């Protein structure tokens, strides 16, 4: 996937996350935000490694999100809390996997579409 497209996907993901938080509330906004957090990590991973297979990028994004969540069982420095959170919440683990699966699907669709055009 071209780096410019990965960067654009990351920017769109940030915009979606901000929109969800601004216009929606409750559990949907919270868990959509969790999923989009992992989608953003996915696109950043693909930006760094554009030749990574989608399943591997999804696995790395999920593992990264889970590691951050489990780190919340300890003490997160106050200056990192806005980015990493501060309270462990087990259901977040599921929504991180949902976000990675969504990004994997989008990336796979793009690659198949590009291959079909060639």
Account of the protein in words:
- The protein is mostly helical and 118 residues long.
- It has one domain.
- Helix content is 79%, strand content 0%.
- The protein is built from 5 helices and no strands.
- Helix 2 packs across helix 3.
- The protein is globular, with a radius of gyration of 15 Å.
Question: SSE layout and pairings?
Answer:
Blueprint: H1 3-23, H2 26-48, H3 54-71, H4 81-84, H5 91-117
Percent strand: under 5%
Biggest beta sheet summary: none
Overall mean pLDDT: 93
Computed over alpha carbons, the radius of gyration is 15 Å
Number of domains: 1
SS-based class = mainly alpha
Termini distance?
A: 14 Å
Number of extended strands: 0
* Approximate helicity band: over 70%
Number of helices: 5
Order of helices and strands: HHHHH
Low-confidence stretches: none
Shape: globular
Can you tag this structure with a few keywords?
single chain, mainly alpha, 79% helix, 0% strand, 5 helices, 118 residues
Short structural description:
By secondary structure, this protein is mostly helical. Helix content is 79%, strand content 0%.
């Amino acid at each position: 996937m071209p780096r410019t497209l990965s960067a654009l996907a990351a920017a769109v993901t940030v915009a979606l996350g901000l929109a969800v938080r601004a216009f929606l509330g409750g559990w949907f906004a919270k868990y959509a935000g969790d999923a989009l957090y992992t989608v953003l990590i996915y696109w950043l991973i693909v930006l760094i490694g554009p030749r990574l297979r989608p399943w591997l990028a999804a696995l790395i994004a999920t593992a990264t999100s889970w590691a951050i969540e489990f780190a919340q069982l300890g003490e997160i420095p106050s200056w990192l809390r806005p980015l990493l959170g501060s309270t462990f919440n087990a259901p977040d683990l599921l929504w991180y996997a949902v976000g990675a699966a969504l990004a994997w699907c989008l990336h796979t669709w793009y690659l198949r579409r590009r291959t079909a055009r060639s």
